[in-house]
Amino acid sequence: MGIDEQTVQLLDELVSDPLARDETLGLLQRPVDLAGMKRFVALLGFDPRSVDYLTGRPIPEDRRVISTGGPFRSLRAALSEQEREATGLKRLLFRAGWNPQALIGSGAFVLASGLGIHAVLAKSEKFAWLPKPARQLLMFAWYADGAFYLGKGIVDAAKAKRDF
Q1: 80-107 burial string, b = 16+ CB within 10 Å, else e?
Q2: What's the N-to-C CA distance of the chain in angstroms?
Q3: SS3 at position 31
Q4: Helical residues (DSSP H) of the chain, grouped into ranges
Q5: CA-based nearest residue to 155, from 110, 109, 100, 118
Q6: How far from chain centre, in Å, is Cα 67?
């Protein structure tokens, strides 16, 4: 494989040590193997363990994956990471990964508790200071959350039954 002048200039900019630059050029001219790729990445100043990602091995614990592909994919990746790391009460906020029966129970509980909260907000004088549109918006979000997870649980259960 031939190395063009543009590649040599780029390596001159990236690798300042002449011996390391010569080694880098040598690695580019021979067949690619895993050890050579790790050495090449190390000569460029990166962690050679990052090459393991290409082979399907787990990414080192002290590294983070930066998602690209737009804001929605990045946001989804960040939320997925938070969901994986959540423990205790925080885990309750991330119900998308629950099994269908738990989702159905959770959705039904949220809807039932919404009925109770709705009654308290509507009749309690303590909450009279809260404008009616704000109470309605709160309850809409509450019911939408419960209905979404109830529906997701039902759909997931139906899919599981169909696939079984």
Answers
A1: eeeeeeeeeeeeeeebeebebeebbebb
A2: 52
A3: coil
A4: 5-14, 18-29, 34-43, 71-85, 89-93, 100-123, 132-163
A5: 100
A6: 8
The pLDDT tens digits along the chain (164 residues) read 467 888 888 888 888 888 988 898 888 888 888 888 888 888 888 888 777 767 776 666 776 666 566 677 777 777 777 777 777 777 766 666 678 888 888 899 999 999 999 888 888 888 888 888 998 999 999 999 999 989 988 998 888 888 76
DSSP state of 3: P
Measured CA distances, 117 to 2, 54, 114, 124, 139 (Å): 72, 51, 5, 10, 8
Q: Which residues of 110-124 are buried (b: 16+ CB within 10 A; e: fewer)?
A: bbeebeeebeebeee
In whole angstroms, what is the distance from residue 107 CA to residue 151 CA? Answer: 8
Q: Identify whether the C-beta of residue 82 lies closer than 8 Å to the C-beta of residue 94.
A: yes
Structure tokens at 8: 């040599």
